[in-house]
Amino acid sequence: MTNKRNNKASGTSAPKRPAQSPPSGNVQGQGSSASSSGPTSQPLTDNSAKRTRVSSKPVMDQDNILTPSAPQDNTLTSSPPPVDINASPSAPDSGTSLDDSQHSPSNSADKGKSVEILPPEPERAASPDASTAAIQSSPLRFYAVAAPSTIEDFWTHFKTNREACNVTDREFSSFSSYGSKATTQGSGDNKLIVVYFRSKPDMEKAIAVPIASLHDLQFHKHDPSAKKADEQLRTLVVTDIPLFVTDAQLRGTFSRYGIVTHCRTRLSKLYRTAYIVFDSATSMDQFENTWAVLCTGHCLRVCPASHSPDQRAVRRAYVALLASLPRGSVAADLSEIAEEVSAKSVNIPFSYNSYNPKPYAYIHFSSAATKESAMGITCALKSIGLTWYEPAEVSSLCYRCGRPGCNPDHCASSRAPQRPSRPWSSNDKLRELYNKHLPPSHPAKRHNRFARPANSEYRSYADAAGRKTSS
């Protein structure tokens, strides 16, 4: 009773806690809120613990406690403020923790799952019609070449191609329309020094007289497009080349048809494509009716580079499928059948995984009538019957045996062939007789365990060396 009277006398009173907020205990790190205006300090009692207030509002809202408060309704202050759903997402949220990243989404309920709406990309403006332009500009280049092989001992004065080109650049740099740098093309006696000008009068003036600094080397007019067209007339395109066929084998194969001056290749998925250049266009005449050439037993499809797209399409228009080939068959094995059915080419594709020949071949014909008559002829290879199909039916064939309706996982052709049994492999008495009477070169004696000396008769090198030194 004494304590209550003292508190009333001092004129201070602890704020009352709302009835709907039960006490939750002392807060660690906070002192007591009891007033210490009495003459003597009193120990903490249960009354002081009851006066401690635990607030669920943020710390930044505590400034309302320091201001003189007017009579307020506790039911309004205890409820959280309404959330403005129309607020800008960039506005800071008062309930965001200080540990949140500054790059975290402001909408905590969304958790960054909303799709960001980007502005539409601007449409690319259409280019103006060049045919209606008032000024039509098409810069031209005028080329000139010189053959160093026409000058005796020319390359004794220049150790490298670059040295000869540098002298050429210094000589022609006096012309304002001269190109950036001279280059060389070809090799050996066919090597050429190539330059170009952007003005025809400068080019004609530059090649009028021999170049004294190049030991009287004479330049002449040169038309690269005409040279390219001439080379195309002498070029043969070779496709379906297996990856293991070398360039030397290609040169040797096509040297039967003429002198090969150049051979370049490029990859084309599972095969390679070659461009064979002959020294004369007359070598291409024999490929007008020849569609394929055999190289190392494989069929290489050929076509002159000068053929039009329609001419090339004719060579792939009439195709039939000959399936159920024996394992390991190549195009050379079908040469007799191809001759009998008047086929123009035979192509056996390779497997993508093992790169082994597949059990079917694509047979190309020159016309639809030839194809129909060929598909009416029954064929067999190595005592195995073959069947004709349309190319669209290849997906229904087994990739192991080439027959329709066969499960590749249980295909009999996938099993390894059985080797013939050897009589000496399981009969010790026969091995002993073979060892005694057969010559040493016979396979039965080479694989006979009785033909080998016993383990006691083997002498190591260390044993032989030790006995030799002791003697």
UniProtKB/TrEMBL annotation:
GO MF term list: nucleic acid binding
Compositionally biased region (Polar residues): 1-13, 64-78, 87-109
Residue spans of biased composition, Low complexity class: 24-42
CDD domains according to UniProt: RRM_SF
Residue span of region Disordered: 1-133, 434-471
Name of the protein in question: RRM domain-containing protein
